[in-house]
Amino acid sequence: MSAPVRLADARHLIDGREVDSVSGRTFATIDPSTGTELARVAFGEAEDVDRAVQSGRRAFQAGSWSRLSPGERAKRMRRLADLIHADADRIGAIESRDTGKPLGQATAEVHVGADFLTYFAGHAELPDGRTYPVDAGYFVYSKREPYGVVGAISPWNYPFLLACWKTAPALAVGNSVVLKMAEQTPLSTSELGRLALEAGIPAGVLNIVHGDGPTTGASLVAHPHVPKLTFTGSTAVGQAILRSAADHVKSVHLELGGKTPNLIFADADIDQAVAGSLFTAFYNTGQICTSGSRLLVERSVADRVIAAFVERAGRIRVGDPAAGGTQLGPLISAEQHARVTGYIAEGLREGATLALGGGRGAVEGSNGYYVEPTIFTGVRPGMRIAQEEIFGPVLSVITFDDEEEALRIANDVMYGLAATVWTTDLRRAFRVAERLEAGIIWTNCPHYLPVNVPYEGHKLSGLGEDLGIEALQTFTHLKTHAINHGGGSMGWA
Ligand code: ADP
What we know:
The protein is an alpha/beta fold. The chain is built from 15 helices and 22 strands. Bound molecules: adenosine-5'-diphosphate.
């Protein structure tokens, strides 16, 4: 069991300065591996959010970033990436404590965050418009322009990485950003804010406000001077954001929940499929919107796959995130622990067979929010554990007889974020991918997502494109200019 640790308190970053809330209110961020307070954090209310938005708006209007030459913007973003790489061990240690992720994994994610900044820096200098064939004497062009202040709201499962993922494309094209990180994991984002200033990103361009959803997040969503919102989190909150955004007809980008099917066909390389499926089911303690939380396996190979799967899952090392060799840390919070164990009880109540796990495993006795890898077999597609996003290390195994049935089960959920397919038959790979209702499909490569590859959630999983060149569209809006330079006078004489 690890001993309680304390880290530096966190404040908002507004107009280039670290400040407390106007009210002086703070809240605790908890170390999920011990259940103890890690640091105090400023709690942003409507007034603090307004100060951050006004600061972003002033910076945008002054042009310190929005009208800076694109090459210079790119240069400063690359400098920020370099600063992050150089400081990644320290930031990774903070991230590991605040999230419960194994230390090595947390540090690797900090480097990935920096890589997002490097990649999107290049977007600053890409062409951003078109011309159109029109009547003689006229010239018409359109161009993409930044919105102004982008409000970015992020969850706790990949704090630093998602902070970079969301801010990098928004900044590259000249927006200002107000970032509201999840209340469970605010600490690493404060480091991003400090390094951004050091890299020469002007005061007011990147603002960070800490706090909860209903007060802080909702104030940002409702603010009239935030014309663009980007949100990653639960479908229920995404729906609430969309409703609230209607008042000011805001543009909203949403990346929401998932219930990713992971289909193993009998013609798959079974060894490869088991190893990859284990990874997609349990990595990050199952707290990923694209986790392969439904294992659909063809009946003729089911016994073999399940036996190998249960045996290998039982060997996954759950424990202290700071200890070398740990593969799975705890869940993020007491609330999430209660939710996940509630689903385990629900699976048993619904009549599924518990083939592995269900408890805290080797860390029994710890006050951390641990749940060991848990596998249910004999799951029917309609059960709640097969329909709802659990966001924990709980896998539902369902068998199918043929491709048609596999597709029917895979698509019969409200989500449509991702799907994974295991097959060695190339024709099947294309055929199945065409019919899967998901924004991204991985054949024999779960979670493969290089930064230049875009994706978009389908059904209740999202709205708008993420990553890749497509992010340019997401963080800009269109302006069209028609010029009469000799086409004759128009209008009434
Ligand atoms: P999760 O289920 O992963 O905790 P949530 O959707 O609850 O995800 O939260 C993701 C982010 O959305 C967090 O930063 C949270 O504070 C914020 N949030 C929650 N409720 C609201 C809301 N009503 N308006 C705006 N943001 C919210």
